[in-house]
Amino acid sequence: MPQLIDGKKISAEIKDELKEKVQRLKKDGIHVCLAVIQVGDDPASSIYVNNKKKACAYVGIESLAFELPKETTQEELVALVENLNGNEKVNGILVQLPLPEHINSDVIIRTISPDKDVDGFHPESVGRLCIGADGFVSCTPAGIIQLLKRSGIEIAGKECVVIGRSNIVGKPMSILLLRENGTVTVTHSRTRNLKEVTRRADILVAAVGKPKFVTSEFVKENAVVIDVGMHRNAENKLCGDVDFEDVQRKASAITPVPGGVGPMTIAMLMYNCVRAAEK
Ligand code: GUN
């Protein structure tokens, strides 16, 4: 049996550390506050937003919820974000994605002040990450680095392969692994001989978006396998991008779904909110 990388336990540790920090900040008169905006009532988004609000309550961060109808115009949403940018009480602003089709998410992301961009999606945050400057880092890849570090897995000098090149996971993941001195390869839908490339990986990060795509044929003996996927199968059971049953026979360490990467995203959002307040 490989080492199970326990995202539930590690995210709880991080939230407990942050809870103490928030209490210390309160004593210094600093109050942490996150504005969470949801447009429309997509059920998956409602679950994510609720989990974010619950995490805020646990850590001691105030959350201001804005639940807007799906007919909200882009101009109205821009005006709300601009208003929150100027609200000194608010440290972080999160606009839940996806937005309805008539709203351009790029415009909204660029409207959020980089000082309050706790999702790390603003081009300035992404640019800062690329050049190694201080800034907010996208929560899921930041959470994966914490999972590896807190599980005693060394990154420096390792062959790291990322499957997927999204702006939210694949690209920032590759830059963070590079920052930790990994040797990084990013693969995608046009990669030739994908299995040959992924079989080089000491650390394999699967952010493909296809259920059970990564089988043992993609994995080197004793590799560390991180699964970013989250899907529901025909029996309504959660599964990831990795065929866990098959891959666990080969991996030295692996994240489960659920209970792996998922809880880390919210823990790192809380971390970014506390950092925003400290700034
Ligand atoms: N939708 C799915 N994941 C995320 C996330 O991390 N942040 C935001 N804002 N929307 C999302």
Description:
The protein has 279 residues and is an alpha/beta fold. It has 10 helices and 11 strands. The protein folds into 2 domains: 29-117, Leucine Dehydrogenase, chain A, domain 1 (Rossmann fold); 139-262, Rossmann fold, CATH 3.40.50.720. It has helices at residues 7-27, 43-59, 74-85, 105-111, 123-131, 139-150, 170-179, 194-198, 244-247, 262-278; strands at 3-4, 33-39, 62-68, 92-95, 159-163, 183-187, 203-206, 224-227, 231-232, 238-239, 253-254. A 6-stranded parallel β-sheet has the order 1-11-8-7-5-6. A 3-stranded parallel β-sheet has the order 3-2-4, with helices on both faces. A two-stranded antiparallel sheet has the order 9-10. Strand 9 (231-232) and strand 10 form a beta hairpin. Helix 1 packs parallel to helix 10 (262-278). The chain is globular and about 50 Å long. The N and C termini lie far apart (44 Å). The relative contact order is 0.16. The site of guanine has 7 residues, from strand 4. Guanine (GUN) is lined by residues 94-97, 119, 139, 265.
